[in-house]
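Field: sequence (string)
Field: structure_tokens (string)

Example rows 1 and 2, in order.
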Amino acid sequence: RRGARRVILDSASLWFAETNTWVLANEPGGEAVVIDAPPDPDGVVRLLARHDLTCVALIVTHGHVDHFGGAGTVTRATGAVTYVHPDDEYLTRDPLAQVKNLFGMVPPGDFTPPERLLDLAHGDRLDLAGLALEVRHTPGHTPGHCCFLLESEGWLFSGDQLFAGSIGRTDLPGGDFATLMRSMAERVLDLPDDTRVLPGHGPETTVGRERRSNPFILGLA
């Protein structure tokens, strides 16, 4: 039953792209899962320290540098394993090149990726830190983009798939609008209206609110 057990949920908007990093755990002082790691490892560490948590896994919605750029630093600092979809390998193999291409400069930070990445696949169930997360492969923003559903709480971590009032951009290399719309209809809008949407940027929303008012998906499902 939703809400039967209290799950710790904390977040912060980090790096200059104001990426939402989410931390999930069952109890203070225990193990935690981190969702997305921008190149601001100190911010991630502060989130974990706030609840005396040990990160056992980092799961990444997609390979763009503002979500993956700090993955190597976080995993080396914590010993956690990192999960990402293999279709984003063209992004994850060189986060530093992404930064140079996008910004024409190199901001402070260590962009060295983790030595080893574990593959995500649609339909996977990740049993981590006492939590069960379902992987929903939602390509379109990037080929390997994934959302993560914590069904016990009715929470969807949507990355850059769905925002409050908007959707992920598809004009970057690897993006495709028709693909994003298809994955939105099949793997996001099939969820109940009261599903809490926790995005990669900006404020949270719900599936129902976006179904009724988001101009990009009105009439989609």
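Row 2 begins here:
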Amino acid sequence: MLLAGAARASVGPGAAGRASTRASASIPRPIGLYVLDDVSDMRPAAKAYPNGLFTDTTYLQHIDGHAIFVPIAKIIPSIPVWGQFHYQWGFLDTLVLDATTHGKAFSIELESGFETKASTYPEALPDSFAISCGADCAPLFNVWVIGGSGGQCTSAYVMLPWVPQVQQFWSVTAESLAAHLHDIGAYGSLTLVHVPGLSVYDEELRLPTGSPTPSPSDTLPCPDQRPAYPSVIDDAAQSRWVTYGYSDSAVIAGFDVIANAFGQAFPDRFLGLSLFPHGSGAGIAFPNFTSDSAGYVAAQLVQEVGVFAGERLQLQSDNLDSGTVVMSVISLAHQDQGVIGWQTNKHGGNGAGCAGGGAGSCLPDGPDSPYLHLMQYGAAEGAHYLEIWPNDVLTYPQSIAAAAAEQLYSTASVDPGGVAPVLTELGQNAPNPFTDHAWIAYRLAKPGRVVLDLYDVAGRRVRALVDGFETAGLHEVIVDRAGLRAGVYFYRLSAGGSVGRRRMVLLR
């Protein structure tokens, strides 16, 4: 119901809590095949890609960008005193130069990672990070992972996002990274920045357990010399997490600070959230010691980012596989209208595995190969962005050429500049919080179909507010509390390819 004479909610611009509906035409979208670097913190950037990649015809013709992974220790080797962060950008610059000199776009993911000799990132955190940050900032946990013919214990320093020092570190790093990319003239080629905390090697939110769990017969010690059993089980216990201040609300609030810092440092670039499959046997769950359903915390974090960056949000999983595609990522992406991205599984050797297989399971290469089917599967789920391993470019040239012919991940199939937005402003409901009813105001630059829905914190649509054609100009709609319980809600407005989201609170 539109109210012509209702009190108007503010829709004017503002620095804090501004509408999430920036002109999407100015934001380059992450589209196409991006080749991943293949480095660890023990390898130089010069070894990031296999020999011959940059002169390969498949790379030159069909690769659109580089997905650059950077262990934190590579850009900030040590932190002798907390708050004095001295960045060294040479490692990052080498990888950025590899992309830009070949005319490619690039994305960036900063990784904290595992701190262990048994991992790809044994020095992923800077020297003295844990000591300088404090015992409750990056505590050491043990995790049981599958490796070789059996399980093994891996130690990880977990950066806890609800700790103010961690929020400070990521906020300063986001600002410094953005400033550096501007300084070297590479910012224009950047399309996507992953927000730390929801990504493969950022351990802030990974519950330190795995499958299978260790048993009393597992006598080999963990890298920190504690016995595998029962240290992994103890580390997964609720009591240890609670000791460091864990709660669902603490995670969500802390991550919101970090995500906002990246959103402000990169106001005109896409923000990436990489999600895990959750649940026993399917992956590593988000820490959740409440009665909330699986994936609750992840859904809330996506909602939080969607409030201020809804039109530039990409949800991604590293588990694209023809047998184990992550349905939770698809569901969240469809719910939030975010861009979907995938990364192919890595099984060593030839790169990606198909149908849960190991190295070589995507062979033979050809115009109807298993690898092509893998890419088709990802595209069928709505993705226009796919990260592939560098060896895959050399191993599956016919598959990649066939994918290009089908325009599966092609800039030709999606306008990289986005759509000229119909929606220009979405106001915060007034009053907020409210007890009886509230007004929502929005402004349209031109006429078009408008859909305005109300969601609860679990992401369920609880009310359709507007669904129909609207004229240009200012519009208002009233929300009353009938049928609603007290709590936090989100309202989402979609108009002409642009999306706005805001949060509202209903009091008792």
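free_text_note (row 2): Confidence is low (pLDDT under 50) at residues 1-25, 199-204, 279-285, 416-420.
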